[in-house]
Amino acid sequence: MNVRVVRCSPEDLQKLQEISIETFKDTFQAQNSPENLKGYMERAFNNTQLEGELSNTHSEIYFIYFDEDLAGYLKVNINEAQTENMGDDSLEIERIYIQNKFQKHGLGKYLLNKAMEIAIEHHKKNIWLGVWEKNDNAIAFYKKMGFIQTGTHSFYMGDEEQTDFIMVKKI
Fold this sequence. Notes:
Layout: E1 3-7, H1 13-28, H2 34-44, H3 47-55, E2 59-66, E3 69-78, E4 90-98, H4 107-121, E5 126-132, H5 136-144, E6 148-157, E7 160-170
Parallel strand pairs: 4-5
Antiparallel strand pairs: 1-2, 2-3, 3-4, 5-7, 6-7
Helix pairs in contact: 1-3
């Protein structure tokens, strides 16, 4: 098994858009209406939005490759790029997605460890994320990795308000 983690650049926009849409749809289409899913993905993964994320100096996006195949990606935010005001001593994992066919190979843990490395490099004390309250597999994974639920926030899937658990891990 050969695993590589590579930072995304603006030249990776098309690949980032494709993997974002594929992994998000695979993860959430069974529990959401097609209209809400489509609306969210058009807003979150359009070229302008992703170009802004790639150029934001307070965000970093990484692809993970399993052998030579693009298997998933990680997006982390610090400072004002965080989606919630969690303070200057925190790093947010905004997205961590692995394609279905590459799950159960330890790649999520690999990306989580990468996020921890980045947090340490930036002298952060906490790492946090929001996870949908109905995403039982992800919640179990994050608990196993030492995250504790500390609160909730609203997440909008199209016009539907959903609840994300805020989970935090001290570094």
